[in-house]
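Lab notes, practical 5.
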Amino acid sequence: MLHRRQILMASVAAAALLLAGATAQAEDCTITLGAAVSLTGKYSTNGKHTKNGYDLAIKVINDKGGVKVGGKTCKLAVKYYDDESTPARGAALAERLIQQDGVKFMLGPYSSGLTKAIAPITEKFKVPMVEANGASRSLFTKGYKYLFAVLSTSEQYLQSAIALAAENADKMGKKPNQMTVALAIENDPFSQDIRAGVMDDAKKYGMKIVIDDKLPKELNDMSTTLTKVKALKPDILIVSGHAKGAATAVRQIAEMRVDVPVVAMTHCDSAKIIKKFGDKAEYTLCASQWAPTLKYADDYFGSAADFAKLFEKTYGYAPPYQAAESAAAVLVYKAAFERAGALDPARVRDALAATDMMTFYGRVKFDETGKNVAKPMVLYQVLKGKYVVVAPSKWAEAKAVIPRPKWSERK
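Output from the prediction step:
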């Protein structure tokens, strides 16, 4: 009897050990994504938004059961390095992540310039990279097979601003082909792609470019360009210079009392122009990849508004689109891992290429070049201290105020 009891106890112990081993194996399954992100340097503001978006998505996915891969349940993690907003360092860190740290899957950095530096490295080692903050259209003309971008490409950023101005030309007593455009664009890959897109759009309407200034990096003074704007009186002023450029533009347009019927720029929300400048930011048109009022939703974050609430509760500020698109990149990876059924980079790459999914950030579907062809840009206008979607009309919360009131007419 004792012998049988000993056998039974031994069997139970063995089963417990097997169960514990299986549980430990499941718990030990961690998929580590690599990321070189700008935590210092000129892109540090948006680098922080990028990292926060990644981290929030990692937490939400892990809290909701992780990633199911080939019968295993895996957790996600990210190995970060600070690229210091420098392309050469970003490229070196990407190689370090792959060669020394053994990372098989990369998340993108912030900015097109940094993404351009890293993409050849990930391509060389056949490591997939899902990126959320490199919008330059030239990234998708190189034939890369391992690069995928969830965001809309840069030439689309301010297309709706030109179209919106044309729609409202009669309010300025003009026809679209009588309108003039001033460009104040930073001389970096992302901004110059925006310039090319605006030039193409202006040409479609027969608009004339009267100022075409390429501005230096570390943009902190636009006074020379704005002096020309005051003299030539264009109908539209387009500005692209990342967060620093947006803040500089809003501040100096107000200081110099520059009157332009339409002012449109990138990076308003990441530059926090409402918080920093208050009513001086009113009527500014702002390109955005995403807005919390959009009717997108998924099973992880819920609606766009739900994501915004969670992000603000977690980090203490409303999410700019850089954070939203970064979180979406992690969701895309999660879905690809599960569809691939294995953590083989080639199989995950093929699963990424076949992506067609809805997220709180919008639909993600990659074309053969790796860019997202399913999500439109939106255009905010600052109205009564809030960002309000005014274009495209399908998503508009209100009509745009065009022309902007002159400074002398404002209270």
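Observations recorded by the TA: The first helix runs from residue 2 to 28. The chain has twelve helices and 17 strands.
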